[in-house]
Amino acid sequence: MPGLGTTYGRGGATTAQQDLANADAILVMGSSMAENHPVGFQWVMEARERGAQVIHVDPRFTRTSAMADLWVPLRAGTDVAFLGGLVHHALEHDHVFRDYVVHYTNAATLLRDDLEDTEDLGGLFSGWDEERQAYDPETWLYRGAGIKRRPPEEGEEAEGQEPEAGGEAKDQGGEAQVLGDTERDPTLEHPRCVFQVLRRHFSRYTPEMVERTCGVPRDAFLRIAETFCSASGRERTGAICYAVGWTQHSTGVQIIRTAAILQLLLGNTGRPGGGVLALRGHASIQGSTDIPTLYDILPGYLPMPFLQADSHSLEHYVHHHRSESGWWTNFEKYAVSLLKAYYGEAATADNEFGFQWLPRVDGDHSHFGYWLEMADGKLEGLFVIGQNPAVGAANSGLQRSALAQLDWLVVRDLVETETASFWRDSPEVERGELVPEEIGTEVFLLPAAGHAEKEGSFTNTQRLLQWHEKAVEPPGDCRSEPWFVYHLGRLLQQKAADGRRRRDEPLRALTWDYPLEGEQQEPEVEAVLREINGWTVADGRLVSGFTELQADGSTACGCWIYSGVFPAEGENRAHSREPKGPYGHGWGFAWPADRRILYNRASADPEGRPWSERKRLVWWDEAARRWTGDDVPDFTTDKPPGYRPGDGTEGDDALGGDRPFIMQGDGLGWIWVATGLKDGPLPTHYEPLESVVDNPLYPIQVNPAADRMERPDNPYAAHRDPRYPYVLTTYRLTEHHTAGGMSRPLAHLAELQPELFCEISPQLARAIGAVHGGWATVTTPRGVLEARVQVTARMPPITVEGRTVHQVGLPYHWGSKGLVRGDIVNDLLALSEEPNVRIMETKGLVCDVRPGRRPRGRHAVPGDRPGRREVQR
Amino acid sequence: MSPPRTAGFLTDSTLCIGCKACEVACKEWNEVPEDGLLWSGLSYDNTCSLGASTWRHVKFVEQEPAVGHGGNDPDRLSWQFSSDVCKHCEVAGCLEACPTGAIVRTEMGGVFVQSDVCNGCGYCVVGCPFGVVAKREGDGRAFKCTFCYDRQKAGLEPACAKVCPTESILFGELDELRQRADERVAALHRAGMDDATLWDPRHTSVEGTHAIFVVRGDPRAYNLPPDPEVPTVHQRDGWRAAAVAAAGMAALAALAFLAGGGESGGATSS
Amino acid sequence: MSRWRSLDERERRLQALREEASPGADPAGPRGRTVDGEGVRPEGAPFPRASAATGYYGLPLLKEPQWTWEVPLYFFVGGAAGAAAVIGAASRLAGGGRSSAAGGGFGGELARDARWIATGGGALSGALLVADLGRPERFLHMLRVFKPQSPMSVGAWTLTAFSSAAAAATFADLVRHRYGSRLPVRVLGNAGDALAAATGLGMASYTGVLIGATVVPVWNRSVRVLPIHFAASGLASAVALLELAGHRHRALNRLGLAAAAVEVGTGAWHELQDVRALRPLKAGGSGAVVRSGGVLSGPVTLALRLLGARRAAAVAALAGSLLTRYGWMAAGRASARDPELPLQPGSGPLTNPS
Ligand SMILES: Nc1nc2c(c(=O)[nH]1)N[C@H]1C(S)=C(S)[C@@H](COP(=O)(O)OP(=O)(O)OC[C@H]3O[C@@H](n4cnc5c(=O)[nH]c(N)nc54)[C@H](O)[C@@H]3O)O[C@H]1N2
Ligand SMILES: Nc1nc2c(c(=O)[nH]1)N[C@H]1C(S)=C(S)[C@@H](COP(=O)(O)OP(=O)(O)OC[C@H]3O[C@@H](n4cnc5c(=O)[nH]c(N)nc54)[C@H](O)[C@@H]3O)O[C@H]1N2
Ligand code: SF4
Ligand code: SF4
Ligand code: SF4
Ligand code: SF4
Ligand code: SF4
Ligand SMILES: [Mo]
Predict the structure, then answer these.
(1) Burial class of residue C83 in the structure, from the number of CB atoms within 10 Å of its CB (0-12 exposed, 13-18 middle, 19+ buried)
(2) Is C72 on the interface with B (CB under 8 A)?
C-alpha cells in the first residue's frame, strides 16, 4: 500500500479497528464497511453511539450509508477531487493542527527551485519523459538532496538515465534519495516549502470545483468538510476507513495519499481515534503483501532486484535501498538475514549470501502483465491457487480466452471454479468462440484444504497475526497449501540435484527442511513461523525481534517485520489469547513489535507530553527515562524527546526525539513524497480511464502514468463515447464472497442473493424504459451481460456541470457455477494498471444499459470491438 | 452463563446493519434447510418471511424518509434493517391450538415445537397471529424458532444473538430487556430519532411477547401488527354458536318427526 | 415458507411488480406514478416501498391455511354423517319409519340407513384426516392429550367417539339381524345410537368453531355464524342423502326446508355485512364458489322443496354444501393473503373495522 507506505513509512493500516471507537468523527469512503467488514464495523457503531459523527461518501446509498449520520453520493472516480477539497478546506479555514504539522511532517521542508507543479504544466509535474511515458523524479527532491543514479552498464559511458528503483520499493518511504541536511522553514511561509507548494497545488480544489467534478452539492460538501475537519487538534481526532472503492482506480494510490495528507494536516495520525484504516480484503491479504505474493517485492517490503536498475551485486543492491538516516539504514541486516533464511549454509559472504540466485524483475510480471503474455501464447503453464480470475479478474473474457493458450493449468481450490472449467462452460464456449475439442490446455484440478482443515496464521486488516488451529482433517485428497508447496519444492530440488543449468543452483541451495508430521507428511507450519521470526545461525536460538538481526550472516530471518512473533521456543505470540489493556495486547501479535497504533510517538507533543488527557496514548516518562503508555511505543524507548542527532550519526540515531515517523529518512510524515511514486509527489485529480466528462481541473484527462494496456481484445470507449453514456461501478454484497467460489455453492448464502441485478435510479429506468424486476442488458466495449433490474433511489443520478450523470451499479459475484448462476460482471471491465500497484480500475468506467435480455447463442457479439484507438489524455 | 428465568429477545433495528449473520447462524446451528433460491425484487430481502425453513428473517425496510439523524438520509430515503423472529408469545396461538401437545412452553418461557410429537395437522399455522410457524413441504410437520432451547440448556445464548456483530439482537432476562428498551428509546429520542418506538404488544390478548423490537417509524411498515389477537379469544363466541346450532338441530329433528305424517305422497320429480 | 414456491410463481410476482412499476400504470397506485424531474427522491418512484398502509412491501403477515383438499371434503362428509346420526335417532324417538321386514329393529329402515351413513361417513372422515396428515400413526398423536382449548383436539375426540359409537350401533344392528335381539345387543345398539346422535351434533357444528377460532380474518369475523351455517349445511346434506336413498318421510322434507331456510339466513347475513374482512366471501374465485354454494343450498333448495321437487332439491343441497366447504377454505386462503387487514388497529374480533 504505497499510498500509506510513502507517506508514513509502512504499507499498512496505521491503526486498529477497535480504536475507531475513540474517534470523534469517522469518514468511511471507498468502502461499504458495514457490508464488507461487518464485524469491524461494530466499533464504528460504538463510536456513533458515543456521539461520533459517521460520514459515508459513496455513489450508492449502502447499508453503511444507512448507519451514517451524513451520506453524500459522488461521481465514481472523483475521490481525489473530493479529498483535495477537504485538504483545501483544512488549509483555508485553518483546521490545520499547526504544532503537529510543523514538528511531525515535512510541511516545513524546502523544495528545489526547478520543481514545476501541475498548476504550471497543466496537470503534469516536472520530469515527465514523453518517450518513456514515465517521470524522472529528480526535480521532486528536497532542496539539497541528491538522487542515486545507477552506474554505467557495460558499453555505456555515461551513467544510466533513469533513477534507480523509480518507485519499486513502494512500501518503504522514499528509497533512492540522499536527503542531505535538508533546509526547513518552521514558519511555513517560504514559497518553496512543502506547505506552500501544497496550498498552491490544491488552491483550485474549492467547494465549487468539488461540485463541478464530483457532483456533490456545495453545502453538502461543506457540511461534511466542517464535520470532519473539526475532529482535529489536541482534544479531538478523526479516522478514515477505506478499501477497494479507493484502490481500484487508475489513481488509487493517489486517492489514499490525499487521505493520508489530510490526516497529517489534521494531526490525526499516531493518535487514538485517528489514522487511516486500510480495510483489507481476503483473510490475510495483508499477510500476502507483508510476505508477498507480488512479483516486485520480497518479504518485509524489501524491493525485488530489478534487472536494469540495481542488481549487479548485493553491495550495489544494498547501497541503493539503504537510507543514511531512519530505520531503513538497517536494510542490509534484513536483506542478508532473508538470504540466510533462503539459502542457509550455502549463503556465505563470499557468494554475496546467494544474492545472485535471486530472480530479477525484467518487466511487468503483475497478474495482468503475464496474463497478456499468456493471451499471446508466451506462457506454457500456470498455477492458480486460491483464485478465480475467470470471474474475479478484469476483462474476464480475455482472462478465460488466455487460459486456452496454455499447455497446462493447475487449479487448486475448494470447488471447481469457472477458472478450472473455462474449457467447457465459459461464455466463450456458449458463443462458440472457444471449442472444447480445439483447446490444448491440460487442466489439473487439485482439491484444497479449507482454513478449518489446516493450521496457520492470518494477518488481518490491522497487521494482527492470529493463529488458527486445524479443526478437522481435510477430507479425501484435499491437502493444505504448505503441503502442496513443500512437496512440489522437494520434487523440484530432487530434479535439480544433479542439474547443470544455472537455475538449478538456487534450488539446490534452498533450505527446504521443514519437519513433516502425520501420515499426510504435512510440513509443520510453526517451523515456518519460527523461520519467519528468525534465529541466530550459530545456535539456532530464536531472536526476540528484528533489532537482533545482523548483516554479517550470523542471523537468518524470513520476514523482518514479523520478527518477534516467535521470540522463544514454544512462545507463538500469534497464538496468544489473553487480551490486556485498551488495545488488547496479549491477543495475537501485531507487526511491528506488537505495536497496535503506528507512529504513536505522535500522540505526544514534541516535549513528550500527551497532546491532551482525553487523547493520551504513549508519552515520555521523565522519571523512568523511557517512553510508556497504553501501546508499545513505535519509537526507540529510551530516546528522550529532547534528543538531537550529532554530526555523522546514522540510522535511527540520526533522527531527533521529536521525529515520530521512524521509517522515513527524516523521521517525518511525508505530505510531499519526493520519490517512491510513479505518478507524482502530490495527488492530482485525473478522470477515470473511461469517463463521461472532461477533466474539469486540467487539460490532461487521465493519469499519464497509468497503463491502459489497450489492444484489440482490451478496447476502450472513446472519450465521451456517445454509445456509453452512463457511469458504471461494481461492488460486493455482504451475502456473497468475491468471485463466488465460496458463496454460490452454499445454500445458506446463495439463497440470500440468488440473482445478479443492476441498481439504477428511477430516472434512468424511466429514461430507458426499464422496469423494476425486469431484465436489462449492460454493455461496455469489452462485453455484454444481462441482469435483473433493481430500480432504487439508493442509486441517485448526480448533476455535474449542470448535466445529469446516471450511475449504474453491479455486484460482481456471479458466474456459471454453483447453486445460483449469473453473467460475469468482469466481462465488462477493462484490464488496466494503476502505475504504482498495477491494479485495475473496477470502480469507474462507462457503459450502456438497455431493457431486455442479452443476445444468446453462437457468435452473440460481446459488446463491440472497435480495435485500437488513439490513447487520449 | 446460566439460562435466564424468563428469556427474551430485544431486537434493536437502529443498530442492525443488515448483514444477515443471524439468519445464517440460525440455519447453520439448527440445520435448517435452504428455503428457495428466488430473487424477490424487494430491496435486499430475498427471504421475505419467516416460515418452516426460515426462523430468523432480516427485513430491509425502504420507505419514505425518516426524520432524525444517526443513520439514514432525511432528504432522500430511509433504509432500516430489522431482524424478525418468532415472538414466543405469552399467550401463544400456536400452543393453544396444538391438539397433540407438540407445542410446549419451556422453562425459560420459550414456545417450543417437539417435532417428534407434531403430527402435521397444521392448526398452529392458522393459530399464529404473526405468520411464523408453518408446515415444511415434503416433511409435513410444523417448524419454527426453537429459541435455541438446546443452547440455552447448555448455558449458551442463541446462535443468532451470539453472532450479531452490533448487538442489535440482545438476549437475556425479559424484564431487564424491557427496561433497556425503554431507556434505549428515550436515548434515541434525545439523539434526534424521535420516530423510534418500542413494539411490545402487552395490551392485547397475546399479553406480551418474549421478542420485542425497537424500530424507527411505524411498526406496521415492518409487518409488526399494532393489535395482534390470539385466536382463542374467538372460541367463546364459536362454542356458543355451536351450542345454539346443536340445540337447534336436535329440536328441529325431534319436532320434524313428532309432527308425524310418515310417507309423503309428494310427487318426486326426478 | 419461502416466498413464492416455483419459478413461474416468482415470475408472476415480479410481473406484478413490473406492472405496478411500468409507466402509465394506475396513477393512484403507490408506485404507479411516473417519474419526472431529477429530484434525488422521486415522488412515487417505481419500486416497492414499505409503508404503514401496505405493510412490509405488501407481503402478507399471516400464513395461509396449509390444509389440502381432504379437509373441506372431511367437513362435508363429517357434517353429513353427524346430522344423519341425529336424524336416525330422532326417527327412532318418534318410532317413525316403516318397520323393517324382520320387524321391530332399532328403528325402521330410515334409522338403519341413517346409521349406515353415519358409520360410513365416520370411517371416511378418519380416512380423509389421515390422508391430510400423511401417515396413519400421526392421527394417534391427536389422542395423546385432550385439550379443551383446542377445537382441533375437541374435534378429533368427537370424531373418534362418533365413529366408534356409530360403528358399534351398526354392529349391534347386524348382530341382531343374525342372532336375534338379546339384551346386551340392544344395550349396545341403543347406547351406540344415542352417543352417535349426541356426538353427531358436535360433528355437524364444531368445524365452524375450528376455523372460526383462527387468525384468518374472514373466518374469525364469521365465528358467530359459522357453526350454525355448517350445521345447517350438514343437516341439509344428510337429509338429501336419505332422500336420494329413496326415503319419502315428510320429516325429511321439513328438515330440508328448515336447513335451507337457515342457509338463506346465514347467506343473507354475510351479504349484508360490509366488512373488508368478509370480501373473500363475495369477491374473486372464493367469492364465486361461496356464493354459488350459498345460492344452491339456500334459495334454490328452498324453492325446489316448496315446489315439491325433492330429488332435485336433494341434489342442489348436496352440491351446495360441498361447494360451501371448499368455498370457505378458499376464502380463508384469500383472506390470509390480505396484507393490510392484520395491520389494522384493533384488528381483533370484537371490533369490525371496514
Ligand atoms: N461480505 C463480503 N465481505 C468482503 C468481501 C466479499 O466479497 N463479501 N470481499 C473482501 C475483499 S477481497 C475486499 S477487497 C473488501 C472490499 O471491501 P469494499 O471496498 O468495501 O468493497 P466494495 O463493495 O467492492 O466497494 C466498496 C464501495 O465502494 C463504492 N464505490 C464504487 N466506486 C466508488 C468510487 O469511485 N468512489 C468511492 N468513494 N466509492 C466507490 C461502492 O459503491 C461500494 O459501496 O471486502 C472484503 N470483505
Ligand atoms: N468488478 C470487480 N472485480 C473485482 C473486484 C471488484 O471490486 N469489482 N474486487 C477485486 C478484489 S479486491 C479481489 S480480492 C478479487 C477476488 O477475486 P478472486 O480472489 O479471484 O476470487 P475469490 O472467489 O476470492 O477466489 C478465492 C478462491 O479461493 C478458494 N479458496 C478458499 N480458501 C482456500 C484455501 O484455503 N486454499 C485454496 N487453494 N483455495 C481456497 C475459494 O474457493 C475461491 O474460489 O476480485 C477482484 N475483482
Ligand atoms: S467473514 Fe470473517 S473476516 Fe469477514 S467480517 Fe466476518 S468475521 Fe470478519
Ligand atoms: S409468534 Fe406465532 S409461532 Fe411464535 S409463539 Fe407466537 S404464536 Fe407461536
Ligand atoms: S402441526 Fe404439529 S405443532 Fe402444529 S398444531 Fe398440529 S401438531 Fe401441533
Ligand atoms: S433463537 Fe435459535 S432458533 Fe431462534 S432464531 Fe435465533 S438461532 Fe434461530
Ligand atoms: S446479525 Fe445483527 S446486525 Fe446482522 S442482520 Fe442480524 S441483527 Fe442485523
Ligand atoms: Mo480484495
Answers:
(1) buried
(2) no
